[in-house]
Amino acid sequence: MAYIDDPETQRANLSFIKASMREPLLTRDHEFDLARKWREGGDERALHELVRAYTRLVVATAARFRNYGLPMGDLVQEGNVGLMQAASRFEPDREVRFSTYAAWWIRSAMQDYILRNWSIVRTGTTAAQKSLFFNLRRLRARIESLSQGGTGPGNGLTKEGREWIAGELQVDVTEVEAMEMRLSASDQSLNSPVADGSDDDWQDFLADQRPSPEDVVIGMRDSNTRSQWLAEALGELSPRERTIIQERRLREEGATLEQLGRELGVSKERVRQLEHRALLKLRQSMLKRVEGFGDLLADA
């Protein structure tokens, strides 16, 4: 359902649209001349003339996306941002009309705005999801219209219809199914009642996935025990081995073999050998203190 602006906003939008349509069209040579003046000389007057001439393209593109339930004025503003981005990146030497180049930037800016604001939950994050979001309704309508004449690939979004859409957009059928469900649903508050007159909210039925107080206490105790085992095992290492383990394994940014080699007066290869030997000693020492290797691992 399209968003309906208040009367004042509608008048402002209409005024902007009329002003955009009054801007004269640019010839190819004049367009390239303006682009060069801006790109090479930073001429802001040339930039403004170039951008104003193509605000009508922004308005036309916004009209295509007006049924996504977002304000027309916001779509136009996002399109203007895309138009400015196109102007800043346009290279006239490529001999491509600015309108052709700017159309992609304008459409991309509006689509990104729609994906960010159509729902509280981000709808499309991958290229496949974005393609489905902006094409699923069109292809579904095409299926329905063809099905009425008896020549369509399927009656609505049947299994055959989903497979046909997946083939058209080069995506997985599972992604078509997921987007179909997403577009048919609407955002709901967890604070809303489960039924009219009910005192229970939807959030009351959400399971708490956090560990219980008992699990927290047990985890803290086990962590302290493992820390004590590690300290005792480190105490069984030689001073040089202990230094290597502490500097290499027990710091957020461990020292390199070369750094420790300079500090200890040995080669990098010797440091690597000492580290390997120390780790074996630690493993053997820790395993003596537990019944099984799993006792050394924290619960996920």
TrEMBL record:
Pfam families with a match to the protein in the record: Sigma70_r2, Sigma70_r4
Similarity field: Belongs to the sigma-70 factor family.
Organism: Azospirillum brasilense
GO biological process: DNA-templated transcription initiation
Described function: Sigma factors are initiation factors that promote the attachment of RNA polymerase to specific initiation sites and are then released.
Phylogenetic classification of the source organism: Bacteria, Pseudomonadati, Pseudomonadota, Alphaproteobacteria, Rhodospirillales
Chain ranges of the RNA polymerase sigma-70 domain: 74-87, 256-282
Protein name, per record: RNA polymerase sigma factor
Key words, A-Z: DNA-binding, Sigma factor, Transcription, Transcription regulation
Recorded superkingdom: Bacteria
Coiled-coil regions, chain positions: none
Classification via PROSITE patterns: SIGMA70_1 (PS00715), SIGMA70_2 (PS00716)
InterPro entries per the UniProt record, alphabetical: RNA_pol_sigma-70_dom (IPR014284), RNA_pol_sigma70 (IPR000943), RNA_pol_sigma70_r2 (IPR007627), RNA_pol_sigma70_r4 (IPR007630), RNA_pol_sigma_r2 (IPR013325), RNA_pol_sigma_r3/r4-like (IPR013324), Sigma-70_Factor (IPR050813)
